[in-house]
Amino acid sequence: MNKMKQLSSMNRMWIFCAAAVLLLSSCGSSITARKINIPPNYGENFTTTPTLKRFMSDVENQEASVVVRDFSVAGSVSGVTGSSTISSLVERGLMTNHKNPRDRSLFESAVEKMQNNNYKDVGQYYRELRKTTGTDLIFEIYAYPVPHYVSEFYDQNGRTHDFEIDVSKNYTVSRGYYLYGFSIEIKVIFLEDNRVAGIYQYEYVPCTQGCNVVDYSFNELRYKMPETGQQFRARTMVKGETWEDFLDMDVVSDFISKKVIPNIYRDMARETPKF
After folding, report:
1. Strand locations in the chain, DSSP E?
2. Residue 75 pairs with which residues in a beta bridge?
3. Residue 56 and residue 79: Cα distance in Å, rounded?
4. How far apart are CA 47 and CA 201, in angstroms?
């Protein structure tokens, strides 16, 4: 009988200890880390004509002279007008990668002057323009910011949570924020005969490796890159007219120099992917 009481007492003790462990585990599961993540865009989106592929397969033509021009129709889904800022960064990226960009203003000046001359056909005009400017290819740039909507974060255990804001003592609301990446499309044109030789699109997506949430409020989320510790802002609603309203231009410049320019020179010498 005493032995039965002893076993019963031990069982009760065990249950009590197990409950205590569960309670402590629950108390210890408070959020100590917040992270956001956006899936990367792995798609290759480019078209290369056989003529351009042959041209760029020649090692000497990797140094072909290039003029960067803005796409003639400004505007985008975000309302940002023009691509001249991005075109300037593409020129810088070409120089960083030891390519051969030509001065845009001098090229445009030559175009304006030569339009007043009489040529027997359009072909002669383009051949003379190439000879006068020393330009082989035109990179026509079209770029625009791309919003990525984020409404939840991950904790240190991989569980998801809404961004909840205390509006009053007994009332909270969930918020979402727009993190901006951007898309850049480059149309490659042979100047000699004004033929479109290829079209290439590259997209920068933020936080594909995860970003740490620093703080968030009703209107704004602050986050930072774990690799550099650099902080950025995302807002619940964004209206702007310049690229700087949406993106950190150092990030844009870095992406163009390290990703876009090396990739387009690689892709211009490749066959178009088959889907």
Report:
1. 35-36, 45-48, 65-70, 100-101, 137-150, 152-154, 160-168, 171-175, 177-190, 195-204, 211-216, 220-224, 231-235
2. none
3. 36
4. 9
* Residue 195, beta-bridge partner list: 190
pLDDT tens digit string along 13-51? 444 444 444 333 333 346 767 999 998 876 668 999 999
Cβ pair 248, 223 in contact under 8 A: no
Cβ-based neighbours of 264, under 8 Å, separated by 6 or more: 46, 186, 188, 200, 202
* 98 conformational bin, left if phi > 0, alpha if psi -120 to 50, beta if neither: left
Which two tokens mark 39? 């899936």
Residue 3: per-residue pLDDT: 46
Report DSSP state, residue 242.
Answer: S
| Separation of alpha carbons 81 and 143, rounded Å | 10
**Rounded to whole angstroms, how far apart are CA atoms 63 and 265?**
10
Q: What confidence score (pLDDT) does residue 128 get?
A: 87
